[in-house]
Amino acid sequence: MNIALLSPSQNSYSETFIKAHKEFLDGKIFYYYGGELPDKLEGGLVINSRKKRVLDILKGHYKLNEFSLPEQALITSFKKNKIDLVFAEYGGTGEKIVSVCKKLNLPLIVHFHGSDASKYDILEANDNYSQVFDYACFVIAVSQKMYNDILAMGCPKEKLVYNVYGPRKEFQHLNPSFSKQQFIAIGRFVNKKAPYYLILSFKDVIKEFPDARLVIAGDGELFNVCDNLIKYYGLEKNIELSGVISPEEYREYLKASLAFVQHSITAIDGDAEGTPLSVLEASAAGVPVLSTYHAGIPDIIQNEENGLLVQEHDVEGMSNNMIWILNNVEHAKKMGANGKRIIQSNFTLKRHIEILNSLIKKAVNGYK
Q: Whole-angstrom Cα distance, residue 161 to residue 127?
């Protein structure tokens, strides 16, 4: 089976779930990327340089017959590579590829991830995904809230599938030592992850635990804001912005830390999480998660069982939870062990991929 896997970007450090799809979906993967309507093929060619120059001049709006140049290029490429199914990462990509799939009578699966199901401008630009819901064989949601939101947009219930990501087995094999008074956070420095709230919470933590440490890994538009906050409050000795780190480095931080922390919120533009993979990874590693009642996080983290949750924007509550963990390390170990058990029972990568592969087979067989 030849699968066209479409994604707006290639090798984004935060999109490890797409890398898992590339690696584990059944079939030969042709990975297309470069915008919502991709113009590149990993290891191949979609739009040659001459056509790309014409496309740039025309800004992608000019159409020959009924299809734009990018659509024509994908039609040609799909035919050449004998594509059997299109698997679109993100709703916007799914909406843009519908006309190509219709032309070639190809089954389509669309996998939503977060902002594509919540940001107001994205929903408006894609007409609330009316074409996706009409044509796609299956639509994937990664949280219960996302499932309900997509259902409310008009997706037929029989097409909609709730399927949370799963962490790689390397995280499940980790045995944390809880050896440092340290907390770890990882993710893009964007509004919905509100990394500045962690800094504001932690400045009160060190009043009681002056040697405690917070590591925030990642990069993004709010990095300088967070760096300035740390300097303003004189927290350089206690808070480290480590930049983008590898999964191996992340696991080393988890191994020594007391908890994973993330203060996710719904941004003013509607941007929200799906179910953060970093939360699943931390819990699989056996580390308690301190986070918020946001999107898919409470699908995974049960308050006082495998972590501690506060309402969005509750800076003081997050601070109190970090202090509680520092005062109750043995209980933190128990919550971490509970988390590892819950992930192994309900949220493995194997389960996630098996569901996707089952849907792919159903979609292809339905089109024969």
A: 21
Measured at the alpha carbon of residue 360, what is the angle toward residues 358 and 365, in degrees to the nearest 5? 100
Handedness of CA 227, 229, 234, 235 (dihedral sign): negative
Beta-strand relationship, 108-111 and 85-89: parallel
Report the distance separating Cα 162 and Cα 322, nearest Å: 32
Whether the Cβ atoms of residue 175 and residue 252 lie closer than 8 Å to each other: no
Average pLDDT, whole number, for the chain? 93
Neighbours of 63 (CB within 10 A): 12
pLDDT in tens, 88-125: 999 999 999 999 999 999 999 999 999 999 999 999 99
Distances (CA, A) of 191 to 67, 113, 125: 36, 16, 21
- Helix H or strand E segment including 95: helix 91-104
Cβ atoms 261, 184 nearer than 8 A: yes
Quote the CA–CA distance of 100 and 171 in Å, as a whole number.
39
Tell me which residue of 330, 253, 328, 265 sits closest to 292, measured CA to CA: 265
3-state secondary structure of 26: coil
pLDDT tens track for 25-53: 999 999 999 988 999 999 877 765 445 44
Tokens of 29: 């993967």
Residues in the chain: 368
d(CA 327, CA 320): 10
Which of 332, 315, 34, 346 minimizes the C-alpha distance to 200?
315
The pTM of this model reads 0.91
Output b/e per residue, 11-29; b: 16+ Cβ within 10 A.
eeebbbbbebbeeebebeb
Question: CB within 8 A of 154, min separation 6: which ones?
Answer: 128, 129, 130, 133
